[in-house]
Structures are given as C-alpha cells and as structure tokens.
Amino acid sequence: MPDFELIIVDDCSVDETHAIAEDYARQDKRIRLVRNESNLGLVGNWNRCIELARGEWIKFVFQDDLIAPRCIEEMLGAATRDAWLIVCRRDFIFEDGTTEETRQYYEQHINPERLFGAGTVYIPSEEVCHAAIRLFGVNYFGEPTATLIRREAFARYGLFDAELAMICDTEYWVRIAVHHGFTYLPETLASFRVHGGSTSAHHFAKRKYRITLDGVILMNEYVNNPTFEPIRAAMRRRRPPVNLHAMLEKKAAGARTIAINAANDASSPNPSLLQEWEALVIRHPNLEHASHAKTGLWKRLAGLWTRQQ
Fold first, then answer.
1. Selection from 197, 224, 210, 216 nearest residue 96 by Cα
2. Percent helix, percent strand, percent coil in the chain, to nearest 5
C-alpha cells in the first residue's frame, strides 16, 4: 500500500525524536514532519493530526504501539463504500512493572468478538446504540491504533472531545458508529503497549474520580447532544423504555457525593475532587440541577411514605 502520507506530529518532545524524524523525512517524500509550538496534550495532538491529514482515511499509530506490516492494506481492503469506522483485533505488549491486575484487565477486556459473536464482520448502528448503554463507557472497539477512520467523519461529527480524560476514544467510536455501525476485522493487526509503574494513592484517587466525571460527561452527551439522538431513539423503543435522564441524575449525584465526602473526610480531607466537580458544573450548568434531582426525588418519596404511615 504505497499511496499514503505519514504525518509525524511532535508535541514538543525533549529527546532525539525530532532529529530522528527529520532524518527519515529527508529520505522519503511521503513523510511530513510537524512540530507543535506548544504542548497540546494527548487529545489536542490527536486533533492536530486530523487537521493536517489530507487522505481519505486516517490511521493512527501512537508512538509506542505497533502495527503489522500488512495492517493498512488489510484494513483498507475491508473499507467498503459505506464504511466509516474499521476496527481490527489487537493484542497487548506489557511493559515491565505491569501489575497482574492490570494484565487481567486488558486480557479479559471485552471485544467485538466476545460481544457480538465470533466471525462478526459488520455491527449495525442499532446494536451499537444498545451496547452504548448496556456497556456504558466500555471501550470494546479498541484503542486508536486499532482503528481506521474515514476522514469525512471528523468533518461531519467533529473532533475528539478534549474534555474527556479517560474515554475520549470510546466516545468518538460510539459517536460515529451509532450512525453508521462499524466493520470489525478479526485479524490481529495492531499491538497496544501497556505501561507499568505504580502511582500514589492520592493520584489513584484523582484518576478514579476522573473516570467518574468522564461517565457524567458522556451520559450528559447521550442525553443532550443532537449527535447521539440514535441512542435516545433506541432507548425509547425499548420495552420498557430506558430513562436516560434518570441515569444522568444518578451519575451526577454520585459524582457530587464522592467529591463532598472526600473534602469532608476527617482523617484525610481532599478538596481537589470537589474543585474538579465545581469546574465541571461551570462548564455544564445543567449538571448542578441533575446532581440534586435524585436527592430531591428521594426526599419527596420519603415524605410521601411518612405521610402514608
């Protein structure tokens, strides 16, 4: 597959990365090297890559992941005229220091074959809509290195959401697939590297809470973003219908409670979670009401029960 451009976007590296990339760019005219003036961060740099791309299809390969020699050829071979998102099977490269718990998490992680059945090639949008709620926030598609995306998707559905810290890729795959479904290629053509190393308990608590906030943001998108109308329509067709507003209220109330409890912990107060919650509410004012709605409902129900007694 010789007809491609290789865009290397250096997000202000401080080692020999840029010099090595320059050397390759001089040897092959298909290589375009861009260096950001300032560090854009993970999602910002993904979106920068998309803005620079000129091809019909976009294939991410992150700096420490691997793809098979025939990966692009095989994935493009599965790219029918109606395809917008193609996903291949991937395996994992575990770095030294990776805990057994982390290994099991990735090795047992659900994938399209386990979810939709072995030999599955095309998963229709209706099934994606139901899986989006049944497996809320679960990335059964795979990481960006395991995907091939029609460039038009970014023009129609926007770029990756930088507000999401942990599930920015998952949200985007759903954003495309609830409209077009996706194609699954049951061949291992990509390898995702899992880094080892431990983190402090305080950092782990912040990371865990970040996942909680991501869930609130994602459900808020499902409830209010016009792009996710297919999910809302699918949930209305369920019998009984699924109340997404109630799910949002529960998630918002839970996130707010966690933050308040952490700030008021007598043994080890942690106000940072509450600061994150308050910052989120400033960006999405409706979440303040949603976080109280569940509490208000339980108070009303309790009052009703008391009067009946």
1. 197
2. 55, 15, 30
- Of 213, 214, 233, which Cα lies nearest the Cα of 223? 233
**What pLDDT, on a 0 to 100 scale, did the predictor assign at position 287?**
96
Question: What number is the average pLDDT over the span 160-175?
Answer: 96
Q: Model-level pTM? A: 0.90
Same domain as 251, residue 216:
yes
Mean pLDDT value across the chain: 90
Residue 110 lies in a domain: yes
Torsions phi, psi for 86 (to 5 deg): -120, 135
Q: Are 158 and 86 in contact (CB under 8 A)?
A: no
Tokens of 166: 């942990």
Mention every residue, 6+ apart, whose C-beta is less than 8 A from residue 195: 64, 95, 97, 98
Within a domain: residue 46?
Answer: no
Average pLDDT, stretch 25-31?
A: 96
